[in-house]
Amino acid sequence: EVQLVESGGGFVQAGGSLRLSCTASGFTTDDGIGWFRQAPGKGHVGIAYISTRDDLTWYNDTVVGRFTISSDSAKTTVYLQMNNLKPEDTADYYCAAPFPRFTTWGQGTRVTVES
Length: 115
Known about the structure:
Elements: E1 3-7, E2 10-13, E3 18-25, E4 33-38, E5 44-51, E6 56-59, E7 67-71, E8 77-82, E9 91-97, E10 104-105, E11 109-114
């Protein structure tokens, strides 16, 4: 069974940090796993992406220098370390796989950044 499960969301003050986790079944980071977010009333936006097969990471310009994507040695858990969070980072965060169609999505985890 292919499945993605996110965790780690919550409430944080502006300037704070959170680490999100995405645990994958049926995928590894060799398949390409991405993080997306959906702010209230908006569509899904790609935030970060990792492919261990291609030794590649990618970040949306809005999070460069603040967010870091990484994976564990088993390549089945993907982390999104989010530092210096801003109120505009408030959204539901999802992981999805595989690249490039991202046909499987997790249920999401909510991040709320209070000013």
